[in-house]
Description:
The protein is an alpha/beta fold. The chain is built from eleven helices and eight strands. α5 (87-106) links the parallel β3 and β4 (111-114). α2 (27-37) crosses α11 (261-279) and α6 packs across α7 (158-168). It is globular. The model has no long low-confidence stretch (mean pLDDT 95).
Amino acid sequence: MAGQGKLMHHPFAGIALHIWTLDTTPLPEAIATAKRAGFDAVEVRRVDFRRQFEAGLSNSAVLEIIRNGGLKISAVGVEYGWIFGQGDESKRLFGVFRESCENAVALGCDLLMSALGPGTGTLGTAVASVRNAGDLAAEFGLRLALEFQFQHPIVNRLEILRDIIARAGRRNVGLLLDAYHLQRHGRIGRGFEDVPGAEIFYFQYSDVPDALPNAAPPTDRLAPGAGVVPWADVLQLLADKGYRGFLSYEAPNTAYWNSPANEVARQGLVATQHVLGQAFPAGA
Length: 284
């Protein structure tokens, strides 16, 4: 079943499963579930490492678990909060950032991802932090994809994050676009036409219910086709922009966490294949 994402007629590297989608499933089983369902890759978070550390495992043991899963790694997440971190906390976060760089290299993955996380501050602080993060990632030959969040008190618009990245001036730092955040922010369908393709490093996706967000961060995300996102517009524009990386299915949902993991993963992949088939019909 593995590799189902690549068998379809679409231009992307493949379909990854973000581990948050199976948050209540232990890491080894979550990766095995993704492989059985037919995903091409998984996206791992820093919290996936931390939970294993808390269970008594070493970093090398966690890396072995991930490698033994037999799937590519689409992105390695860092601990969030470093963008507005200060003092000793900033030093700690950048130390963890370095560990994530080392882990990405060990896993054969060239992409780090980071959301904004907790904390607020000035845009000048954010620019300096992004500059430092880009330099650190570059030491390891890595790219860094940053995600804007529509609920963040400071960087709650895509144009703000684009400005921060531009001011930081690091060519290995770019955007993580998330279909959920784009839709919630009002950039519906082809609403990111103003973003140059060269700035788009990574893409996460889930559908959006026809209701207000249920939490911060939201855990109401749905499989493609179950909400209001116009998928053909989104995916066709992403392809038009020249994006050829992985699509990472990130659908944290309390209902999914209370359902069999195999069912959640498989239904998510089938739903993804369906909207991809609509956006890129064979023979078109």
